[in-house]
Predict the structure of Molybdopterin molybdenumtransferase.
Amino acid sequence: MKLIKTEDAVGHVLCQDITQIIKGVTKDAVFRKGHVVTKEDIPVLLSVGKEHLYVWENDENMLHENEAAQILYEICRGEHMHGTDVKEGKIELVAEIDGLLKVNKKRILAVNSFGQMMIASRHGNVPIKKGDKIAGTRIIPLVIEKEKMEKARQTGGSEPVFQLLPFKHKKVGIVTTGSEVFKGRIKDTFGPVIKGKLAEFPTEVLGQTYVDDTKKNITAAIMDHIANGADMVVCTGGMSVDPDDCTPGAIADTGARVVSYGAPVLPGAMLMIAYYQKDGKEIPILGLPGCVMYAKRTIFDLVLPRVMADDKLEKEDISILGEGGLCLNCEVCTYPNCGFGK
């Protein structure tokens, strides 16, 4: 930092805010720290009494905050997102599509641990709408060592901190079990709930099949939907551990790879996730617990966005949901802007 005459400051970077005070009109910074002085700025600077200015001295080993901010942005940016204009070392990332946000937690921690730079983001594995803000990044000081920024760039290799996986169009088959519904003794209230949640994503419901509590009939209904081109099958009813609850066994009898039966989430402990192999791809089969029918938000809301983005779920992905897996059933639901599933 050095002090120079204002008339000689063109092209230099200010090291301080320059405040303009006009009684009854304004009291604000007319130029911010980090501003690059232009010829047109000189009369304004002189008018606010600044005949000398503190400016940044060029140093080949240092970067201006805006140059460093661009590097931080490049570390963060994945596909389907863009940055705002850099301002005072800050760039925000904005979604260009609807999709599932994935966060490289190890890398964001590594970058934030360097100090003098920061990344603040939304939680990962949540649905994002086009135009939503994904993250904010900032360089803290006016200047920062080039070496530090290069070390930050090297953390985690070439993988960006953020990825936005687009939701895929899926044809969905629904299998509703239960003799009471199959025989028309009660009206099905599960199907409309499932269809409503599926409608939040690019889906086409191929049909809803009603079957009794016979395991082989449930298995056959699942396989019929797959044979008819379903990219995903959702099963409702018969998911508990009672002797006459046959849906988990029926899903297993399809030959699908069972990832998990049970989840550390309330509501939603009796969830089942399996993948059926067909023509080189894995078709998800979800067995949904009864709570999905009446609770505002459940395990289904946590796994559905990931399934829709073809984000393959494994046992660990379910087990890790225990912390944050308790829905508080708030009177006014704000999900996903709450702690559930985070």
About this structure: Residues 215-227 form the longest helix (13 residues).
